[in-house]
Amino acid sequence: MLEALIFDVDGTLAETEDLHRQAFNGAFARLGLPWHWEPDTYADLLWVMGGKERLAHYIETRFPDEADRLLARCAEIHGLKTAIYGDLVAAGRLALRPGIRRLIAEARAAGVRLAVATTTSRPNVDRLIAVNFPGGEQPFDAVAAGDEAARKKPAPDVFALALDRLGIGPARAVAFEDSAAGIRSALDAGLPVLATRSRYTDDHSLDGAFSAVSDLGEPGRPHRHIAGRTWPDGVVTLAALRDWHAGRP
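User: That's the sequence. What structure does it adopt?
Assistant: C-alpha cells below.
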C-alpha cells in the first residue's frame, strides 16, 4: 500500500532556485563583496548540493589565495542570504509548482502521509510552507532538512531520515525529485522516484526515475511527458500513483 509521498523542495515543490540566486547576490552586495552570480554561473554551482557547501566551493575554486579568510565569513554570508530569501518568499515571490497543491490535497484527504526531504535550510522550508499554506496549516507530517542529515544528497541520508520520522519503509512511499543528485539520493534510500524538470536542472539526467515529466500537471493543463510511466490526461493524481504502486514488481 502507498502510505507516503516525500518531496524535495528546491525545484520540486517550487521553482526556488532563482530566488536563492537573488538572495545570495543580495547578501554579497550588502556585505560589500564584489560577486554577482549570473544564472549560468548558478546553474553550474547547483551541482554542489547545499547552499553553504555551494558558497564554500565557489570561494575555494575562484579565490584560492584568499580562501581561508573568505571561508571564515561563510556563516555570516549564508545567514544574511537566508534572511533575504525569507523576505523574498514572504513578499509572495514563490508559488508552488503545477500540481503540487492539488496532489497534497488529494493525499491529505485520503490519509496518505506527506514529508519533505531537502538539503535546504529548515527556515527556508518553513517560510515556503507558511506563505503557501496560510493560517498555520502544516501539510507535512515530517520534515527532514538541511543540516539535520549527516551527508547531503546524493547520499541517501536525508531521505532515510524522512522515512524514519514517518516510521515507514521505502517500499511504502514515493519520492519526488528534480535533480540527478536528488534521484540518486532517493534511489539509494530504496525509494521509487518520480522526476520533474525544473528551470535549473533542465540538463540533468533523470535516469533511475520510474517516470519523468515536466511537472505534475493540472486538469486542463497537462504536463509534458519525458520518459517512463505515462499518466492519464497528463496529470499525476493520487489514484494513478496508487495504481502504479500496486502493480510495481
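The longest strand covers residues 113-117.
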